[in-house]
Design brief:
496 residues; alpha+beta; five-stranded antiparallel beta sheet; two-stranded antiparallel sheet; 7 strands; 57% helix; 10% strand; elongated; disordered N terminus; disordered C terminus
């Protein structure tokens, strides 16, 4: 039996005090793990985020906005009661290519956030290798005589561990920034989807309005062609004039030109809807309603909290939070970093002895890196981060102000378009009565044919203008819904 050294431990490889080497090693690992947790719970550099103040109108009953982009917006377009519009909206959301690209950007941002989160954990790499080599028999040695050549085989299975302690919160701030960028990417997708839904609705209503204008022009052209036949018969009978015939031809040609322009607009709107729905225009057919729907009535008392649902405002604030966290990342780079590297594994000359306990190897190497001289790079990066934050603050405030402007513009448009529509409808009715009176007086021979033409043209122009105003009314309500974020929990729209 071997006798151990009383200073170093027992002859069986145990440290003094009766503790085995394995127990001593596990105690060391436990101590290091405790140190890791203690250091990882350290402070975070950089400022904590606070929402910047935004100057807003008092009439809006403004309160501090909190992003509510996560609240479902619902199928807001159903308020118009048109199943054809419902089908177009779903087709666009399923097949629009810009929306698919935005979804891919969201997935990228989420993956980047997961990459940033991995910095909280140590990295462990493993490998396996086999080496066999022959030494030189003529290699110089410090022993004064040559060493005969020999062959060596070595099996090795090492494991490498590396971990940087988040003493100053650099990792936490980095993850905070990446996480908010991911949320901002989702808000950007929601903003794009809301814009897509609004564009589909606006183009559809414009297409319905154009279809009404086309029917009005076709009816007018048909009536004028009938009138042309009558005037040609009158001329052949010697009771009419060439002026009546030629002037009627002018009116027909003018209406044909207007019809061609409107049909071109119809084709453009159909092509736009095809692209929005992710389809080639050549084989895309849109069915539209016979008439424009009645615009929904908007509640005039709209609180500012509605704007919290706007995804573009939420996106701007998420980006602002990310920029604020980047200040902490740049500031933490000015402080020393503490990294722990450890190696362990098994090494043996024979494969059958590789995983025996005596074949184990390990090593621990703490490292402290202090930035002594960087040529001003770290300070410049901190200044850049602060400037980027200031830019994000200005962008956020601008988004909020633009949101108020868009809502106010839409409300003003709805209010004044209603007055315009009422006036146009009255003008159409009066022009129709005027045309009938002029035709009767012409038949009685009391007025010239020119008055009949003028009255008919006036009625046509006002009728086309009335349809255009009705289309604008619907599109103004679409813009308002979009400006308010696409929907809300309590209905603010009602069908008249």
């Amino acid at each position: 039996m071997r006798k151990g050294n009383p200073r170093s431990g027992t002859g069986d490889g145990q440290p003094a005090g009766g503790v085995s080497r394995a127990g001593f090693q596990w105690r060391t690992v436990g101590w290091l793990a405790g140190l890791l947790v203690a250091i990882g719970a350290g402070c975070k550099t950089g400022p904590d985020y606070e929402r910047p103040e935004v100057e807003t109108p008092d009439a809006w009953r403004w309160k501090a906005a909190e992003p509510r982009d996560h609240v479902p917006r619902g199928e807001w377009w159903r308020v118009y009661g048109d199943p054809r519009l419902d089908d177009l909206e779903w087709a666009a959301m399923e097949s629009n290519l810009d929306l698919q690209a935005a979804l891919a950007r969201v997935d990228q941002a989420r993956a980047v956030a997961r990459i940033s989160r991995s910095d909280f954990f140590p990295t462990v790499n493993g490998a396996a290798s086999f080496t066999r080599y022959r030494s030189s028999g003529n290699a110089p040695t410090p022993l004064g005589f040559t060493i005969p050549s020999f062959h060596v085989s070595q099996w090795s299975v090492p494991f490498d561990l590396s971990y940087e302690f988040d003493v100053w919160g650099k990792v936490r701030r980095g993850f905070e920034a990446a996480r908010n960028r991911a949320v901002a990417a989702e808000a950007a997708r929601q903003s794009l989807m809301l814009t897509l839904q609004a564009d589909v609705a606006a183009n559809y209503f414009s297409l319905v309005g154009v279809a009404e204008q086309i029917r009005t022009l076709e009816e007018t052209i048909a009536l004028r062609r009938e009138a042309l036949k009558i005037f040609e018969q009158r001329l052949a009978a010697g009771v009419g004039t060439e002026f009546e015939v030629e002037r009627t031809k002018v009116e027909i040609a003018t209406a044909d030109a207007d019809l061609g322009q409107v049909r071109q607009r119809e084709a453009e709107l159909g092509n736009a809807l095809a692209i929005l729905c992710g389809r080639p225009p050549s084989d895309f057919v849109v069915e539209v309603a016979d008439r424009l729907p009645v615009p929904p009535e908007i509640a005039p008392d709209i609180p500012a909290s509605m704007l919290e649902r706007r995804p573009d405002v939420a996106e701007a604030e998420r980006q602002l939070v990310a920029r604020n966290a980047e200040i902490g990342v740049a500031k933490a780079a000015l402080f020393p970093s503490i990294r722990l590297t450890a190696q362990g594994g098994f090494q043996s000359g024979d494969l059958e002895d590789l995983f025996l306990w005596e074949s184990r190897t390990w090593g621990i190497s703490p490292q402290v890196t202090v930035p002594i001289f960087e040529g001003g790079r770290l300070r410049a990066d901190l200044e850049r981060s602060r400037a980027a934050y200031d830019e994000a603050v200005a962008t956020y405030r601008q988004k909020v102000l633009v949101a108020f402007r868009e809502v106010d513009d839409s409300l003003a448009a709805i209010r004044f378009l209603q007055d315009r529509y009422t006036a146009r409808a009255a003008a159409v009715e009066a022009a129709g009565n005027s045309a009938e009176i002029a035709l009767k007086r012409f038949s009685a021979g009391t007025v010239s044919f020119l008055e009949v033409v003028d009255a008919a043209s006036l009625k046509l122009n006002n009728d086309l203008a009335r349809i255009a105003v009705a289309t604008e009314q619907l599109n103004a309500t679409v813009r308002l819904i979009k400006a308010l974020g696409g929907g809300w929990e309590e209905p603010q729209l009602s069908q008249r």
